[in-house]
Design goal:
The chain contains three helices and no strands. It has about 80 residues and is an all-alpha fold. It is elongated.
């Protein structure tokens, strides 16, 4: 699946996975990996959180990508 993605979708997908893993660690073990790695740079840490959120929103709401055909229109039920 990753092979057919364009660069933007690959980065967004990786950031969404990082965010999901971080939330899983916070929920299960009360351990924030992003804070542990970037805690000395709170501005960079905040930027990572914003990028993860924007990646999730873009993966959820964006239509089909012309470059890699990822995404698509939501079908009506």
């Amino acid at each position: 699946m990753m092979m057919k993605m364009c660069g933007v979708h690959k980065v967004a997908w990786i950031l969404v996975i990082v965010g999901a893993l971080n939330w899983g660690l916070v929920g299960a073990f009360n351990f924030n990996l992003v804070n542990t790695i970037l805690g000395a740079w709170p501005t960079v840490e905040r930027i990572v959180y914003v990028l993860v959120g924007l990646s999730a929103v873009s993966m959820f709401f964006c239509g089909a990508c012309k470059a890699c055909k990822m995404g698509g229109e939501m079908k009506k039920m």
